[in-house]
Structures are given as structure tokens and as C-alpha cells.
Amino acid sequence: MNILMVAAECVPFIKTGGLADVVGTLPKYLKQRGHDVRIIIPKYRLIDGAKYNLQALPYKLSVFVGKEQENFRIKTCMLDGNIPVYFIENLRYFNRLGVYGDDSGVGYGDNRERFIFFSKAAIEATKALMFRPDIIHCHDWHTGLIPAYLKTTNLNDGFFWNTSTVYTIHNIAFQGSYDAASTVPLAGFSWEDYKSDKLEFYNTFNYMKAGLAYTDIISTVSPTYAKEIQGPAGKGMEVVLQTRKNDVYGILNGIDYSYWNPKDDKNIVANFSADNYENKKLCKKYLQEKCGFKQDENAFMLGCVSRFDMQKGFDLIMDAIGKLTQFNIQIVILGSGDRYIKDGMLYLQSLYKDKVSVCTDYNEPLSHQIYAGADAFLMPSKFEPCGLSQIIALAYGTIPIVNKTGGLADTINDFSTYNTKGNGFVFDFYKGEKFIDCVLRAYDIYKNQFLWNEVMKNAFASEYSWKNSVQEYENMYNVAVNRKTAYNIYQKNI
User: Fold this and answer.
1) Averaged over 150-175, what is the pLDDT?
2) Helices (H) and strands (E) in the chain, counts
3) CB atoms < 10 A from the CB of 145, how many?
4) What are phi and psi of 394, to 5 degrees?
5) CA separation, residue 74 to residues 50, 124, 140, 196, 384 (Å)
6) Residue 420: which residues within 8 A CB-CB, separation 6 or more?
7) DSSP state of 396
8) What are the strands of the beta sheet with 300-308, ordered from one edge?
9) Full DSSP string of 47-82
């Protein structure tokens, strides 16, 4: 099967969130199963062309954004030596210091035009490359226009006659909603398509709605989140999703255990495994020293690696720190994002510098050291489509403390002292007192060496590999392809 991934991010080239991890990892497992997988992303200034040895292809292409003709080039390299990645290069839209906006978190004022351009350019690049995909897998609002174009402006384009589309929601909170009067003509759609069952969304033009209305299959990144967004968590899209409920799939993301593995992780001071995790104590000691904490084996060390966003539960974390530091608890947090949260966390560090350490410059080695050295991992997200951090923490025997939502509910089971089952600690009502109680319950169990060893064993035994998820993606792709085949046969016979 020929599969084309189109997204705004992809590891290792560019990343702001979990979207990049999926786009950069899932293709590797699909490739192993015999599929021809390729990836298209923008060529941002932040992507180092020399580092990845990007090569320019001999195509000079253009598309229209409104009445403006925009030229672009295609550059390419190989991911893992066997997966072609194509970069859409246009200096006007992508030669910037940020991906979606500036350092303050404010989005670029022309993001609407940037992703109209990218969606059209991805379609034209596919044709220029003569790669005929059975599936175009589109990710998040940035690519929501692609399924819409293929069934409207490009409907009679024979190149895509056998192509189906899959549209994945990674975070329904970000939808790309704009003024309809100017966006419909700018994107090149007909006003006949601006109807409630197609492009119109509460008198706006919404990129995610376009994807949901026109794609063949809808997916999201965990079974629980797939159900949640068809209800109150749908951010206005619940009615749209309910009308297509038979087309919605929830497939849990996985992690790459060849990269996130304490047994051979080169970023940590001492390696360990599920069979022998004594060296985890050395990782903790090193992390304590690095944070300027007292090197106390009995201290309960909490780690957090996250984007600074209220979605991630930082209102609960900031409110809880004052009380938690009254106990023998140390807290290390690595994150970037919202300036208000950043300033608040740095202020708390100044108040409790012997027990709270905050790093606001993303540091990949430090993230590994936190996963390896912390005893427990804080992830009290208000909502979490899937989440990868809690899965990574499990791989390092670091026990997640989570809110029962989305992918967190699908991966973390509350530890029971009665039967010693469960791989983490879960609270099920988003409130500060519930979060603090959950942390202190984990702290009490930590002080019981037998029980803590049991929950660590359960964590190590938890596996959420892409090997488990890739089969579900294949099944979903097959449904989309079979529907397209049946539709084409029907069209020939009428």
C-alpha cells in the first residue's frame, strides 16, 4: 500500500508536540510491514538543511493562495535510511523563527494563508513526484483542507482516482477557525460548498471541520478520547463527529522503545532494566545533584516534562507546590510555552529552591534524566488526547500520577494496595485537592518499599509499542481503501 503522511511537524526535523512523534515514528513501523510510506512537511527555517543533508529536487512549482501565485521548491532526505521525507520550501511562509508563532505564544497572523498554501502545495508536490498514494493521511487542522480539495476543486483529477483520505485529530482544541467571507475565496472553494454539512461551521470557515466533513475515515489518538470528543469535550465538533460516528477510530499512540529504553539510554548516568533497576537510584542521585537538591534516597522525587499549557494541569501543579514541599518531596520540571506559567514556575523555584527545580529551555538529555531519575511523574492534564510522557515514564519505572482522561485513562490504572495491581496513581475529578491527595497517597506508598517495588514492576511490564498499534492503522487504512474501490466500481456502473 502507498501511504502519504502530510503534517506540520515530524521528528527529528521539527517538533512542538506529540503530533511530530506520531508522524516521525508510525511510518517506520508501516515500512517494516511492507508499505511504501512517504512524508510531506513544511521546510521551516528551524530545520537545519545541512544537518539532514537536504537535497533540492528539480521541480519549480506554484499554487494560488487567493489571486496570489506562490512558488515553491521541494527538498528531500531519507528518514532512517528508507523513508523519503519531502519538504515544501517557500521563504514567504516558512522562513521564520517559529513554527506557528513567536516566543510569546501568539500565532502568526497569516497562519490561515500559510496552511492553505501548504495543503495545495502538498497535493501538487505529490503529483510532481509521481507518487500515487492509496492513502493520504492528514494530521490536525493544518492539513484539514486536503480531503476537502480532493473532493471539490480536485474532484476530477484522475491522479487521485484511487486515493482515500484519513484525517487524524491530535488535539481538538486547535481547529483553525477563520472569517468565512475572506477565507472561502482565499482557499479557492466555491460558495456552493459553504454549507452546514460541508465547510460552514457556526458562520466561520474551520479547517478541522473541512477535514472531518470530507475525509473518508476519521481517527484520533486513543479510544477514550474518541468517545470524549463526541460529547462535551468536542469543542463544538461533537455534532459533526456524532453524524460520522461509524467512521471514527480511536487508536492509541505508542512509543519507540529502541529510543526510550533505560537499558541502553546514552543520556543517563547509569543504565538499568526491569530485571535489575538498582541503578535507577544512581540516576536519582545524579538528578538531585544536578537540581541542587539534597542527595536523599528517601526523598520522593517528582518529575515533569511538558509543554507549559493549562491543558497540562499546571494550575493544579502550581497551586500544589507550596503544600507538597512541606513533605520530603522534591520536584523537577522541564518545560516551555506559556509565559505566565513559565514566570509562575520560576517564582515558585525562587521560593523553594532547595526542593523545586525548573528548566525552561528544552533539553533533550535532561528529559531522559528526569524520566530515569524521578520516582514519580506528574501529568495531571485537564484533557489529554493520548499522551506519550506517561508511557515513557512507565518504560523507566517512573510512576505516573495522572488525571483520568483521554489516553491517560487508557494507559494508567490506579494502583491497589489490596491486590497490588495498577501501574500508576489516578484521580478522577479535576480539582486541586484531588491532585494533592493523589500525590500524597503515592508518597505514602513510596515509603513502603515492598509496595513501591510492586507498582514499579507493574510499570515496567506495561508495553505500549507501535507494534501493537500499527495493525489497527492497517485495518483502518484497508477500510478506507475498500470503500474507495467500491465507490469507483459504483461510479463506473451508473
Assistant:
1) 96
2) 17, 19
3) 29
4) -60, -40
5) 15, 11, 22, 36, 34
6) 451, 454, 455, 458
7) T
8) 356-359, 329-337, 300-308, 376-379, 399-403, 425-427
9) S-TTTTT-EE-S--EEEEETTEEEEEEEEEEEETTT
144 near 240, Cβ under 8 Å?
no
Residue whose cell numbers read 463526541: 230
Residue at grid coordinates 479510544: 223
pLDDT in tens, 418-457: 999 999 999 999 999 999 999 999 999 999 999 999 999 9
How far is 280 from 269, CA to CA, in rounded Å? 9
Question: Which tens digits make up the pLDDT trace of 449-473?
Answer: 999 999 999 999 999 999 889 999 9
- Please report, for residues 121, 279, 421, the alpha-carbon distance to residue 458 in angstroms, rounded to integers and kept in the order given: 47, 18, 7
Q: What are phi and psi of 5, to 5 degrees?
A: -95, 125
Q: Are 414 and 425 in contact (CB under 8 A)?
A: yes
Q: Which three cell numbers stand for residue 454?
A: 510492586
Query: Is residue 487 pLDDT above 80, yes or no?
Result: no
Separation CA 122–CA 23 (nearest Å): 15
